[in-house]
Amino acid sequence: MARRGRALAVLAVTAAMAAGLTACNGYDPTSPADARKHTATGAQAAFGSGPGGAPVDCRKLKCVALTFDAGPTVRTPQILAILSKYHVHATFFTLGKNHVRVYPDTVRQMAAQGHEIETLTWSHRILTKISKDDVRKEITEGRDAVEKVTGVRPTLLRPPQGRTSDTVTSVVRDLGMSEVVWSADGADYKTTDSKLITRRVLSKTRRDGIILLHDLIDPTDRGYNGTVAAVEPIITALQAKGYTFVTVSQLLAPGKPQPGKVYK
After folding, report:
1. Which residue in 89, 208, 214, 218 is the catalytic one?
2. How far from each other are the two terminal CA atoms of the chain, in whole angstroms?
């Protein structure tokens, strides 16, 4: 437990830096609107289904993507229950080593409920600080852990801390994958105040937004532990404002994520 607590504390510190770092990486992100607008011939993705099976077309609807990082954990089923209650599909960027490998049944539950399961790498190493070979290893091991459980290979990577570089992007492109960062950060890694997390998300969310939250547990109680209680009010408030919740891939459709692109 002590080791796990220290690991979560480190993750909390790195996550806390993330919002400021994404703007400093020098990449030129593609917005969901641009992804839909500049769809390459033959590269269109089918529209996903929303509640009731109706197609979701984010060119016409006010869409937002809810994403969860760094799980699954024992807390994830609570989030899945809330998502199911409100017929919301989310995108989970999972960690392989201490999460997918430890909670495969939860990953299967995510898949059964129609959520999008992607990768945050194998062990949350900062990709801009390691060798190209290690970058490839972190991504492929995280990706393969998901595929082993679900039978579906992830095509989207969320780089830890949102940090990327030309080297990282070249590896991602070679793997046929795309990177996804975020535009609305609840900063749930530095507070347990659910109301504060909710306010942060609501104040930052706009059409085509990508919301960042975490399905983690912090035994030090410095962060993450307020996330579950924030999910329901975030959903109900945004639905009341006319937002439709979609997965990241649905947000880009009929565009299809292009290898080497960074989406925000």
Report:
1. 214
2. 35
pTM of the complete model beyond 0.70: yes
What backbone torsions phi and psi does residue 217 show, to the nearest 5 degrees? -125, 135
Round to whole Å and give the CA distance between 241 and 222: 31
Question: Residue 38 pLDDT > 90, yes or no?
Answer: no
Extended beta strands in 181-263, E state? 184-185, 209-214, 244-246, 262-263
Question: To 10 degrees, what angle do helices 166-174 and 132-150 make?
Answer: 40
Catalytic residue among 69, 185, 188, 208: 69
Token pair for 90: 């989310």
pLDDT for res 1: 46
pLDDT tens sequence across 92-126:
999 999 999 999 999 999 999 999 999 999 999 99
Domain 2-263 - what CATH class?
alpha beta
The pLDDT tens digits of the residues spanning 61-102 come to: 999 999 999 999 999 999 999 999 999 999 999 999 999 999
Report the C-alpha gap between 97 and 167 in whole angstroms.
Answer: 23
Distance CA(227)–CA(9), nearest Å, equals 16
3-state DSSP helix/strand/coil percent for the chain, to nearest 5?
45, 15, 40
Neighbours of 55 (CB within 10 A): 11
Is 214 tagged catalytic? yes
